[in-house]
Amino acid sequence: MKKTNVLYQHGTLALLVPGLLAGTLKMEDLLKHGDTGIGTGEGLDGELIILDGIAYQVDSAGKVNLVSPEFTMPFANSHYADYQKVTTIANASPVDFEKAALQGRPNSNTFFSVLVKGTFSYMKTRAVVKSERPFSTLAETAQKQSIFEAKDVTGTFLSYYSPALFNGAAVAGYHNHFLASDHSIGGHVLDFKIAEGTLFVQTFDTLEQHLPVDNSEFSAHDFSKDDIAGIISQVE
């Protein structure tokens, strides 16, 4: 039985901060925990979005690629989709989107995912150029990114909301990825405006956190020396 109340997360955003970018989970194993998700490849190799059990990578050239089962990741989320329609939304800014997703609340103390299917009058995304060993830090790698922009594009906007008390494990607040229906643009969302769309929400009561305990670099690293919250806020 598929557990639609569980959000599975491999790795943490905190481990990316010092440059622990080794791929420690294969896509075929991530897909055992869900048919929907986001993530990034080894060395921050592009931006991932999983929809209907199909994994896509938006690379730094803007090309949308199908992801192989052997593709490895340092960080990813997945879950089994069971979204509930909340509302239709039109002429909406990021602030409007966040208010609609929170359904009038100032914040949430649980994890949830938001899906918007529709037309976006503006979409701005990014994908990072892959870092090779020895890996650079997250801040250094994020400086080498490609920016993509489009107007009047139809597609799927996939977001995960993490409570503030989990900042570091994930991004406090919203972490947004996008894929156009025609694959003309995708990636990590930097800015957007929704022309019209349908907003769906799925709430999780369980976070299943999976850590790369077999990776010696992760096991030996002292995270107390890293400005985790500051760097994540800077690059996300």
From TrEMBL:
Describe the reaction catalysed, as an equation: (2S)-2-acetolactate + H(+) = (R)-acetoin + CO2
Q: Which UniProt keywords apply?
A: Acetoin biosynthesis, Decarboxylase, Lyase
Which Enzyme Commission number(s) are on file for it?
A: 4.1.1.5
Q: In which pathway does it act?
A: Polyol metabolism; (R,R)-butane-2,3-diol biosynthesis; (R,R)-butane-2,3-diol from pyruvate: step 2/3
Any single biological process term in GO = acetoin biosynthetic process
The protein's GO terms of the molecular function aspect are: acetolactate decarboxylase activity
* Family matches, as InterPro entries: Acetolactate_a_deCO2ase (IPR005128)
Q: What class of enzyme is it?
A: lyase
| PANTHER family given in the database record | ALPHA-ACETOLACTATE DECARBOXYLASE (PTHR35524:SF1)
Family to which this protein belongs: Belongs to the alpha-acetolactate decarboxylase family.
The protein, known as: Alpha-acetolactate decarboxylase
